[in-house]
Amino acid sequence: MTHPQGKWFKFFGLSLGIGSISLAFCANPAPLGAQENGAGKTETDANASPIERVQRGNVAATLNPGPASDGLCSAEPTLTITRRGKPLFDGPVANRVNRGGDDLLGLCRVSNLDVRDLDGDQEPEILLSNYSGGAHCCLSSLIYYYDRATLSYKRLDQFWGNGGAGLEDLDQDGRPEFVSRDDRFAYAFASYAASSYPIQIWRYAKGDIKDVTRLYPQEVYGDAYELWQRYQQIKQDFELPAIDQDISATGANLGPVRAVLAAYMADKYMLNQEVDGWKRLAQLYPWRDRPQFVTSLKQHLRDTGYITGSFTQRIDFQQGSSIGSAGGRLLRGDRHRYLLKARAGQTLDVTVPQGKVRVQIFKPDGQRWTRLEPGQRKLKRALPANGDYRLEVTAPEESGYSMVVEIP
């Protein structure tokens, strides 16, 4: 397989290089205007148009990109889906992509139409790729799936960010996985061009897509090895400061080193090899600011869900702000406890934009006061007493989550 750390990571007709981007939209294996027959083979009309048509079994899809608004981006793309000869969807491809509850700017390049069974239930899904425009962001998958309850097609949007994803059947079970990278590591420890990323593997099933990276240790190990090799290459390509030098005084940029070690540690946590990982990091990062780097890295790994388990910490409010945030990944049985100091009469506003988690809120005397159940997104109430409140986050099954807390 091709790992995200490789020199080139191809996705949706884009070839992404480290520190650069080459737009190669004609990388489609089937040319625009080509039609795939029921046997899965491609046929090209002599009068090929910009319209893409693909059929698999009794499901067919047609993508009309519409007029190009600037020579690249489609202005009004439309999609038609027929099942057993009956049109079940015929309309515009929505011009906004949802990321964690936020609407992003319109679709720029909708392409790479495909019809394939993603979850092995003998019901093909319709897969589209979208590139929103910009130097290197953003990329997403649009998955249309048949809903037997309503006898209609619904859509799932999966946002990939800067890096994109590719489909590979990693375990040869007939159900392809999305192989991606964790885009939350972009800019976290270095510039975009110098950032490194841990691998992510996702699986679609019945209208949902889940992170299943932990189920593929061989692929994670391969990614960790590539990151190790990249660290060795950085040592050769850059003149790194001496161990006893004051980094701030030398002006040395250790960002690429921090970035590759951060991604490496994420992989080590996925492999349950974090103890070995921290020992190696102590050897690979000997500079004076190591304690500060380790502290910030652990916080990032916790925020992104690599460090799991139960813990207690205070809500991180930015200086001068009444808004704090928290997040991570919960396994069943984990408890993430957050403390915040407040006064009676103040309003507590809790929002959970992502994750199926339970948030229980305890008063300063330890008694449970109120809670948000999985699926509920918002709670707003006046506080009854002065002191430290405890917000305890749990999940009935493994789930990532984010939480925003405001006390005006």
Summarize the structure.
The chain is α+β, with helices and mostly antiparallel strands. The chain has helices spanning 217-237, 247-250, 255-270, 274-284, 290-303; strands at 8-11, 14-17, 20-23, 34-36, 42-44, 52-56, 59-64, 78-83, 86-92, 98-99, 102-103, 109-116, 125-131, 139-147, 152-161, 165-168, 177-181, 199-205, 208-211, 311-314, 316-317, 323-330, 336-342, 347-354, 358-362, 368-372, 378-382, 387-394, 399-406.
Supply the key terms.
alpha+beta, Jelly Rolls, six-stranded mixed β-sheet, five-stranded mixed β-sheet, 5 helices, 39% strand, globular, disordered N terminus
What does this structure look like?
- By secondary structure, the chain is α+β, with helices and mostly antiparallel strands.
- It folds into 3 domains: 8-168, no CATH class; 182-307, no CATH class; 311-406, Jelly Rolls, CATH 2.60.120.380.
- 16% of the residues lie in helices and 39% in strands.
- The protein has helices at 217-237, 247-250, 255-270, 274-284, 290-303, and strands at 8-11, 14-17, 20-23, 34-36, 42-44, 52-56, 59-64, 78-83, 86-92, 98-99, 102-103, 109-116, 125-131, 139-147, 152-161, 165-168, 177-181, 199-205, 208-211, 311-314, 316-317, 323-330, 336-342, 347-354, 358-362, 368-372, 378-382, 387-394, 399-406.
- A 6-stranded mixed sheet has the order 5-4-6-7-8-9, with no helix packed on it.
- A hairpin with a 2-residue loop joins strand 2 and strand 3.
- Helix 1 (217-237) runs antiparallel to helix 3 (255-270) and helix 3 (255-270) packs antiparallel against helix 4.
- The chain is globular, with a radius of gyration of 24 Å.
- The termini are far apart.
